Amino acid sequence: MSLSKLISLLLVCFCVSFAQDVRVYAIVKGQVKKVYVSEGQRVSKGQTLVEIDPALYIAQREMLIAQLESQKLTLEKVEKDFKRYEELFNRDLLSKSEYEDWKNKYEKEKNKYIAIKAQIDELNKLIEYCTIKAPTNGVIKKLFVKEGIFVNGTMLPQVLLTIEER
After folding, report:
1. By 3-state DSSP, what share of the chain in percent is helix, strand and coil, each rounded to 5?
2. Where in this chain does the record put each Multidrug resistance protein MdtA-like barrel-sandwich hybrid domain (predicted)?
3. Is 100 left (phi over 0), alpha (psi -120 to 50) or beta?
4. 17-53+130-166: what fold?
């Protein structure tokens, strides 16, 4: 066998890819609404595999949106008051202690608003995570879920399925 044929044969051997199992997890909780795949099915990266009902997160988000609106009104009122007291302080008509009290009250209300907004952003992300997508191309090797069951990936990420990467 010639050296060039031997090198070609070695290159072919090293280019063979080996299948690798990829576990797909849920980090949310809820009832499995729909399983779009079955064992042995070929899937593409980004393909929807499982949909978990986001109703729990949507309800929490709606409640927080109402709180955010209320907090916005409170913040606007406290901000106006703070600006008035700041103006009095700047004209030496208000003690530093009273000024700092109003400044702290304003900062506290502003931080409450920011915290509620962050919770809404987090819930939006969790709602997005209720749609489980394939992280890679492959074949569904094993399904661990079926429609109607409750998953609770919030305590410990829950394995939904295994994809054999190809």
Report:
1. 50, 25, 25
2. 22-152
3. alpha
4. OB fold (Dihydrolipoamide Acetyltransferase, E2P) (2.40.50)
